[in-house]
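=== RUN LOG ===
request id: a7f3
mode: sequence -> structure
chains: 1
length: 478
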Amino acid sequence: MNAPPQLYLLDGSSYIYRAYYGFRELSASGGMPTNAVFGFTRMLLTLLQENRPDYFAVVFDPPRDETFRRELYPAYKAHRETMPEDLVPQLPWIRKVLQALNIPALEAPGFEADDVIATLARAFAAEGVEVTVVTGDKDLLQIVGDGIALLDTMKGKRSGPQDVLERFGVPPELVADVLGLAGDTADNIPGVPGIGEKTAARLVRQFGSLEGVLEWKHLVSGKARRESLYVHADQARLSRKLATVRYDVPLEVSLADLQCRPPNLPDLIPLLRKLGFAALEVAFTPPPPGVVELYSDGSGRDAGPGGYGVILRYGEFERELSGFEPESTSQRMELIAAIRGLEALKSPRRVRVYSDSQYLVRGMSEWLKGWVRTGRLESPDALKNQDLWQQLASLSGRHEVTWEWLPGHSGHPFNERCDKLAKRAAEDGARSVSERQAGKAATEKAAVPAPAPVLLVPAADARDVVFDSDADGQLRLC
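=== RESULT ===
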């Protein structure tokens, strides 16, 4: 059975502000601030690479004063500060980046991004598309349902109907009723004075809806609360209307319009250079003709669980590999990562291997020749991790390989992706081992408690060490 197509809708304004405050003190050569442009592009790239949606769009808000909610209630969002001065000139550049990336940027006059997102999400979910809305805005939890989920990349949390129930105490379709009673200080929605979110949720559950609460307000406990409901009933209804997203935004957007397409490199690369984004330029620049780029990284601790992450790039094609070892050192995982990448090549190639492990890079580019010449590579127990060095020597002999060191955690896009793949594989593997052990213990009705989950703790890593030019790596690393 084929998996349903995946559509991701990104709340663009939310991402821009996260980028602006998350990446500071960046500017182009002419002095123009670029922190928001860089952060937005980098976060966008990470989102797309980690999720690989079939369809994608970024949705923006119109000017705050030009929405129907402002007409209904002039104080709506009026308390918010104006956009920072150094963010304003960056907005057109973000649009230019999206255009060069061939990513649709959507907005609708008079409606907020939430309304556009809700309209598209409901329409395409009804057609069998799996929709993920990328935002940190709690108001959009009201649209969660069959085929629609929320993803907060800042918290790494994906929310479905059960998560909404845990967050608000009511199902998604009643979130706006809760906000109608409790209000929303972030949007300056007044609600009913004296009723907070927990009380609002309890009342909505008790009486079924905001209208039910207002109809039976004489049964609500607490004299002050009852009086507030009598006095502010119309304000509660207005607040619910302000908090409720619209599903009827007039849009002429088909699913085909949102299909992910390759970036327009002739426009994108010069744009990134003009902005001074060298690291991001690397992410979009294909390898030289006939060359396979292999990025690898390992994650582990002494005698503990380990993971590896590999990215293979050839022309416009890209492949990710990752895996887990129940017991391994960080050094072995670095070597295993390169081995797994080279094993994936089915025919001789010109290969450039990039790693943040000096142990691996210097071992293969400098120390290996000496080990072969002196016989240490084949002499039993002459080298630490001898079995892996032998595998690497054999595999690299099938190809024309060059080895290059990348400083760890330097912002290099592929280095960081491999690091994430390796750590995720280690964590998932350790969790799986713990679950199997716990299940086995339960099945056998063992008297001893199930083993606690393995915790990954940071350890000294060879990648952070700068070695002397005459070192062969063995005394320093083993």
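=== NOTES ===
The chain has 18 helices and eleven strands.
Residues 8 and 362 are 42 Å apart (CA to CA).
=== END ===
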